[in-house]
Amino acid sequence: MSTVIVFGPTGSVASVTAATAQKHGATVWLAMRDPQKPIPGLTPDREQEGGFKRVQADLTKPDTVAAAVKASGAKRAFIYLAIGSPDHMRATLTSLKSAGIEFVVFLSSYTVSGELGVIPPSDLIAYSHAQVEINLDDVFGPEHYVAVRPGGFATNILEFKHGINAGEVKIFGSKFQLDCITPTDMGRVSGTILVQGPKNGQQKVYLYGPQIMSQGDAIQTIGKVLGKDVKLTALSPQEGLDEFLRNGAPKPFADYMIRMLDAPDKEQKARTDYEAGVENVRLYTGKPSMKFQEWVESNKELFCS
Questions:
Q1: Which of 58, 98, 198, 238 could form a disulfide with 202 if both were Cys (CB 3.0 to 4.6 A apart)?
Q2: NmrA-like domain spans which residues (predicted)?
C-alpha cells in the first residue's frame, strides 16, 4: 500500500484528490496550515474509517513541508500554486524531494502551453504556474511529476452567488468564455494520477468541462436551477476593476483579470488540446466530464448559503 500526502485538503479540489487516493488504496496524509479545520466531504467517522492522518504544513514554509513529509513517510505528493512564494516554490520543492518525495502531482493551469520559459510575467496566471513547472523540471526531472492543467473552474462562478440570490448580477465580462471544469473531476483525476501515475505517457494533463459557455450563460444556468430570474447588469472596465479591488484582489491581478475579461472571443486564451482534455476525465475516472448544470444541481447549497 502506497503512502501519499495531499496539501491543502480543505480546498474543493484537494479534498476530492485525497478521497480518491484513499479509494485507490493509498494511506493518505492531509497536510494543512490548520489541522483542526473541517475537510469537505470528510466526516470524523469517514476520516477514521479511511485511515486518514492529519499533519501541519504550509507550502510557503519549506521547513514545515519537510517535517510533514518526514512524519508521513510519503513518496508521492499533491501540491498547488502557493501564492506568495518568493522563488516560485523552488525551496518548497527542494524540501519535498530532500524529505523523500519521489513523484509530484501539481495542479497547474490550462493557460500554460508551449515553451515554459517564453511565457511573459504579464501573463500572470500562466507565468506563475509555468515557473513552478520549470522548477519541478529542475528539482524532480520531467519524468517525476505530472502537471494537471485544468480549464476554468466551475467554482469561480460562486463569486456571483449573492447577486444571483438577489436577482441581479452586476458583471464585467459577461461574454467571457468558460468551460467550467468541476472540482469533482479535477480531484478524481488528480487522485488517480497520484496513486497510479499517468496514462499513455502523459506528463501534462489538460482537463476541461464538456461545454463552452459565457459567464452570463453560466449565471443564467444557476438561476434556472435555483428557480430564480436573474438580471445581468453590465459594468464598465473601471467599475469591474473597482469591484475586484473591493473584493481584496491585488492591483496587478485585478488589472490582469480586466484585460482577460475584456478580450474579444478570438483573442481569449486558447484551450490547448480541448477535445483531449475533455476525454482525459473519462480516461482517468471512467466517467464523462461533468456538465455545468449537472454540477450546479448537485451542489445547490453552495449557491444558497
A1: 198
A2: 2-295
Angle, CA of 113, 116 and 117, to the nearest 5°:
150
78-137 pLDDT tens trace: 999 999 899 999 999 999 999 999 999 999 999 999 999 999 999 999 999 999 999 999
DSSP designation for 107: E
206-221 per-residue burial string, b: 16 or more CB within 10 A, e: under 16? bbbbbbbbebbbbbbb
pLDDT digits 0-9 by tens, 190-202: 999 999 999 999 9
- Please check whether residue 205 is in contact with residue 163, taking contact to mean a CB–CB distance below 8 angstroms: no
Residue 25 region, left (φ>0) first, then alpha (ψ -120 to 50), else beta? left
pLDDT in tens, 42-55: 999 999 999 999 99
Contact 69, 94 (CB under 8 A): no
Map residue 79 onto helix, strand or coil. Answer: strand
Which domains, and CATH codes, for the chain?
3-150 (3.40.50.720), 152-181+209-270+289-304 (3.90.25.10)
Output the pTM of the full model. Answer: 0.95
DSSP state of 104: E
Distance CA 48, CA 44 (A): 6
Q: Of how many residues is the chain composed? A: 305
How does DSSP assign 212-230, residue by residue?
-EEHHHHHHHHHHHHT---
* Dihedral (CA of 35, 39, 43, 48) sign: negative
In this structure, what C-alpha cell is assigned to residue 42? 470528510
pLDDT higher than 70, residue 267: no
**Residue in 132, 113, 130, 163 with CA at minimum distance from that of residue 59:** 132
Q: How far apart are CA 270 and CA 108, in angstroms?
A: 15
Question: What is the C-alpha to C-alpha distance for residues 60 and 65, in angstroms, rounded to an integer?
Answer: 9
Helix (H/G/I), strand (E/B), else coil: 296: helix
